[in-house]
């Protein structure tokens, strides 16, 4: 039976399932780890010694909400280059504050803090749950995910007739979700404890609300991904930025044989939406440390490691912008990437993206080998350009990097929109990248 790289509809179904299973970065790392382990990849513990890296070796390591996985080709040596697909597991949204429960005018509410740069209005009037990890007083970590329990209610038009001409949300007062119609005595920690106990009932001591010593928990939209459009050509989903790239890299790593003498790597970092400055972010040491341990497993000295890095590549894959039909003036007047025309090469003269001429040539070559159409993105000169892990990885590791990604509408919305051909095309191109000598 052909793999997901060979069947678009199967790939889109699997991507939708991956997103549904990954409402937080911690869940995304766990979902990827489960898929890798099921395929025979060996889990590595950062506190233990790692074995020598042999041809055909497959492994992964999880650090908080990030995961790095690798697959060694035949004939690897101390100077073998790596082919890295870099992505991130986090998305903009809302994170649970400490001491979150409070009551206002008869409504039980929950205090949340804004994470990154979400489109705030897109989170209004949605059925929301809580997901992430909690750590109990004994130091044990538990992944948690509640049912739909909360909502950020919008003000009725009758109470503010100007909302349709200019909605302005106060980042403190207007985005605290409602949990219940009155003080019920059940707080959000009770719900998290219930969710922790539901993961593996009876296999561990029950968690009580008072056992929770710390939380890394966010709101998530409970609506599942859905194919829409006249021909089902569009996928409407949460967290396309950037689980679209994470899943593309995961699928390509599982299904593509690395070129002889190379090592294929998936590096899915956390905290990109905050600038990546964390131990599990692209500005942190995670990738550098893993590559160093893999090199040590090949017996590489500093000279061999430098030679290997000089012939290595990183594809920094992160979602980008399709031209918006209602706001066409926000895009470059001549470079007009559109949904369904293929994943994009992302360029920026000020190094907000790491692509250069060599990177453009590499990207076009792997797309041609995969039979995938591609297009180019560049910002309008008056519209600020976002950035990715690409420049950070190039700076920290010193590796040639090219920025690519799937075009979206509604980026940073609670629910984003992408074309299924672009989503599948990215995975196929990454597979060709991993297989390239």
Automatic annotation (TrEMBL):
<comment type="similarity">
    <text>Belongs to the peptidase M18 family.</text>
</comment>
<dbReference type="InterPro" id="IPR023358">
    <property type="entry name" value="Peptidase_M18_dom2"/>
</dbReference>
<keyword id="KW-0645">Protease</keyword>
<dbReference type="InterPro" id="IPR001948">
    <property type="entry name" value="Peptidase_M18"/>
</dbReference>
<dbReference type="Pfam" id="PF02127">
    <property type="entry name" value="Peptidase_M18"/>
</dbReference>
<keyword id="KW-0479">Metal-binding</keyword>
<keyword id="KW-0482">Metalloprotease</keyword>
<dbReference type="GO" id="GO:0004177">
    <property type="term" value="F:aminopeptidase activity"/>
</dbReference>
<keyword id="KW-0031">Aminopeptidase</keyword>
<protein>
    <recommendedName>
        <fullName>M18 family aminopeptidase</fullName>
        <ecNumber>3.4.11.-</ecNumber>
    </recommendedName>
</protein>
<keyword id="KW-0862">Zinc</keyword>
<keyword id="KW-0378">Hydrolase</keyword>
